[in-house]
Amino acid sequence: MARITVEDCQERVNNRFLLVQMAIKRVHQYRDGYEPQIDTKNKECVTALREIAAGKVRPDDERLYTPFPDEIESKLSTMRDFPEN
Predict the structure, then answer these.
(1) Fewer CB within 10 Å: N-end or C-end of the chain?
(2) Residues whose CB falls within 8 Å of the CB of residue 64, separated by 6 or more in sequence, listed in order
(3) DSSP state letter for 57
(4) Axis-axis angle for helices 16-31, 44-54 (nearest 10)
């Protein structure tokens, strides 16, 4: 694969929003010390997309996706409960 495209990644993850979230999370993991699962000399964001396109990282991968912390989840739940006028 000479060039990585969004279409390459969408064969594995069909939701573009989720794809971006996955790539961002993976870049943060590299910066925290995780090693890439593929050999590449590309920048972190391209490496993350290459891993997704290769199927090395999946949306159901617990290391990649972590739910919101409790404090954020509680704020979100209160934001959902708008008072009626």
Answers:
(1) C
(2) 22, 25, 26, 29, 57, 58
(3) S
(4) 120
